[in-house]
Structures are given as C-alpha cells and as structure tokens.
Amino acid sequence: MKTLRTPFLHQLATAGVGALLLSAVGLPAAAQTTAPVQPPAGTVPAATPSGPYSLQRAVDVALQNNLTVRQQQLTTENTNVVLRQSRAALLPTANAAASQSWNYGTNVDPLTFQFQNQTTRANNFSLSSQVTLFSGFQLRNTIKRNELDYQAGLSDIEKSRNDIALNVASSFLQLVLAQEIVRANEARVNTSQQQVSRAQKLLKAGSVAESNVLDSQAQLASDELNVITAQNQVAFYRLQLAQLLNLPSATGFEIEVPNLPDPDDVVMLTADPDGTYQTAQGIMPEVKAADLRVQSALRTVELARGAYYPRLTFGGSIFSGYSSARIGRKLTGDSTVVPSGFIYQLTPTGAQVVPGLFSGIKQPRFETLSEGFTSQVKNNLGKQLSFNLSIPILNGLQARTNVQRSEIGVKQNELRAEQTRLQLRQTIQQAYADAIAAQRRYAAAKRQTEALTTAYRNAEIRFNNGLLNGTDFNIAKNNLYGAESSMIQAKYEFIFRRKVLDFYEGRGIRL
Fold first, then answer.
1. Signal peptide span per the entry (predicted)?
2. Is 506 exposed, middle or buried (0-12, 13-18, 19+ CB in 10 A)?
3. Euclidean distance between CA atoms 305 and 302, whole angstroms
4. What is the pTM for the complete model shown?
5. Nearest to 433 by CA among 494, 486, 390
C-alpha cells in the first residue's frame, strides 16, 4: 500500500484523534451526533464507486474531490501569475496612441499653433517605449521574493493534501474500531442469550432462583442496547468518512478492514524523539514553508531599501499628426505675364511713363489648398529619445517607514518559523510518550483480560450451579467486558500513535 505523509498528524496526535478513539470505545459513551470537524464541501460530488474502499483509495478520492486542496492550488497559481508578471517587468514597455478631435469656433490649431475661427479636424498618432535601467534592484528583488512565495505556496498545497489524507486515515481507523466494537458487543449479546436460556432451564429444574433469570434478562437488554449504540457509532463514522470523500451518500459505502497487528507483536519503542525531530523538520512542508517565508521577508526588506536609490529610465517616442486647417500651395501648370519694364510715350499733354508689355516675365500660378492627410503625417513626423533620472530626497519618510515595517515582518516570520519547529518538537515528544504508554496499557489490559476471563468462567460455573446470584455474576461479566474494551482502546490508540511516529520518521502511514 502507498504511504501517506501528512503534517496534520501533529495537530490530532495530542488531542483530536485520541479523544475520538477514547469516546468510540467506551460502552456507556453516548453516540456522537455532531458533524465532522472539517468536512470538505463539493459542488459536484463524485459518484460512489462500487466495492469496498481501501485506505489509499479513500485518500485518492478525497484529494480528487476536496475543495480545500483546489482552493490552495488556485491560490498558488495566482502567486505564479504574480511571479511571471514581476519577471515581465524587466522588459521594455511599448504603447501606441491615436486620437481624432473636432474643434469649433475660436481655437488653436494643434499643429500650427495659430488662433483661428473655423471648424478643424485633427488627428494625433504616437508610439512610445520605456525601459528601466536602474531602480535600486527593486525589480530583481521582487522576482526573488515572488519565487520564494511561490515555493512556499507549493508547500502549502502539500500540507493541505496531507491534512486531508490524515483526516481520512483518522476517520478510516475510527470506523474500523467502531466495527470491531460492534462485533464484540454482538458476541456478548449471543453469550447473554445463551445465559438467559440456561437460567430459564435451571429455573424450571428448581436449581436457581427466579431473580437469576431476571438478572440475566436485564444483562441481555443492556448488551442489546450496547449493540445499538455501537451500530450508531459505525453509521456516524461511515457518514463522516463519506463526507470527507465528498460522496453524495453513505449508502452502500464500505471499507476494507486491514489486518492490524497487536501492540505486543511490535517491538517495544525506544524513545528517540530528538532523532525523529531532526528527520521531521527536514521533510515537513509546513517547516519548509515557514523558512521560505522568512527568506521572502528578507527580500522584502531589500525591496524597501531600493526606494533610497535613484531611478533611471530610458525612453523613446515617435509621433505625427494631421490638421484640416493646415494649407499649402499647389502648382496649377498655368503662367502669368508680369510687367518688368517701362517706356516713355509722347502725348499732347506731354511725355508719360507706361508699362512695357514687351518686357514682361512669366511666373507659375499656384492654388492655396488644404494639405493632404498622408503628406501631413509624413511631414509632421517627430522623434524623441530621453533619459529620465529621479532622485528621492524627501517623501514624507515613506521609504524609511517601509524599511522598518519590512524588518518587523522578518522578525514576525522568524517567530512563526520558530513556533512551527517548537510545535513539531513537542508533538513528537508527546507522540512518543503516548505510544509507549498505550503499548504498556495494552499489555496490562491484556493480562487483566486473561485474569478476568478465568474469574468469569469460575463465576459462570458457580452461577449455573446456583452458588452465585445474578448480580454478582453480571458484575464479573461486566468487569470482563470493561477489560476487553480497555484492551481494544489501547490497541487502536497505540496503532495511531505509532503511525504518527512513522510519519515523522519519513516512513509514511500504512494500515
């Protein structure tokens, strides 16, 4: 069977699962009716596959249907998009623009900059580009920070998957335990029925008092009640596991019961929590995520300090335009004779000066027309190159404040990482102590069960011979049942604690 690795084990190892295992075993315990602690919801539940579920199959279905894992995956994908955008910020920017406008009445021509009183249509076209040459290494520090955030997000996905896997493994083990309790209680009911039948026969033979029969019947009723209570526990844990798998219904949902060894068949644990801790902190995704976020916070400090440095950019642009008010002269091909000399002519009144037509000069004729769109765009073409330097001097101490806040953020992330490691160490130490205690408790409960079994058989012989009343016999019987329940409880608690340690040592969870 594949192994299950989950950091969420340490959250349930000290309280959650242990309490559930304890409440699932005791005979007088009330049936649990509350909803699961973290049932994953789903918009489109998967159909219930046929056949019993193994642990690995249940985990695979839960991971496929769980929305918490999907949400974490989307969050990480968003972080990856931010990372790609920060890398693209190193590229030059390029933008094109175009506009068309109409001016009425008195206005300034956008190209000739002359006042005029006419309707004018104008077009403007531009193409510009800019690249950052230096910005205090802020762009590169942003990329490095976002890379760390993305890696931390991947660790968060692994942690979410491990959390779901542990929830499934815990519910799976609880269901196995509940089913074993049902089988034990059904065996007790069968024994009690045989005892009632035997007591009734002895009563008819006059060997026992009627009170013995009544006590046996009362015990049978109590055992039947315990069976109903245990069956309700099975139904509850089956529903809980089906909800964790996001199945539409628990009807027909069954599991494969694994063959679990008894604790006394396992070599006694040797306490080495420090070695397990050293192994665990190197493989736990929550520890890796905490360390990555410390490094990300350090990059944030460098990013904030980049605001102290000047910012240098280089840009270029090309632009042109058109105005309907712009005019030009166009050669028509005709010519005009212009007088260029004078002659004297005698008249009765005297000599007069008249133009000399014979000495005229021909000049070309032009028309005043609006300049065409294409020629204007070509003639109005302009280009520009520029370097822009921005030197921060005083901006309300914003850069200094941002640096101080980012330095505080580093300390906060360092404390979170330290807290994660501390919780991991304490959980491993507690898991070792609980596993050793459960193994010892199982051995003691087994010896107690063997002793009470012998006492019960002796009490049964005395009861059948009329030498022991029904009350004392039921006390001996219930003492045996209590010892058996304690042994079952210790068995499953040891199994869980041992799997916790296997997980932290990198061996995974196998049932």
1. 1-31
2. middle
3. 5
4. 0.74
5. 494
DSSP state, residue 364: E
C-alpha 374: how far from its chain's center?
A: 57
Rounded to whole angstroms, the Cα distance separating 405 from 304 reads 9
Residues 261-281 pLDDT 10s: 777 766 666 667 888 899 888
State which H helix or E strand residue 365 sits in.
Answer: strand 361-370
User: CB of 323 within 8 A of CB of 109?
Assistant: yes
Q: What are the contacts of 342-350 at 24+ separation with CB within 8 A? A: none
Question: What confidence score (pLDDT) does residue 268 get?
Answer: 62
What length is written for the chain? 511
Domain extent listing, the chain: 9-87+138-309+398-504, 329-370
DSSP code, position 38: S
CATH of 9-87+138-309+398-504, one of 1.10.1740.10, 3.40.190.10, 3.40.30.10, 1.20.1600.10: 1.20.1600.10
What is the per-residue pLDDT across 121-138, written as a single tens digit (0 to 9) for each?
Answer: 888 899 999 999 999 999
- Under the banding of pLDDT at 50, 70 and 90, the label for residue 337 is low
User: Please, what is the Cα angle at 398 between 394 and 403, to 5 degrees?
Assistant: 120
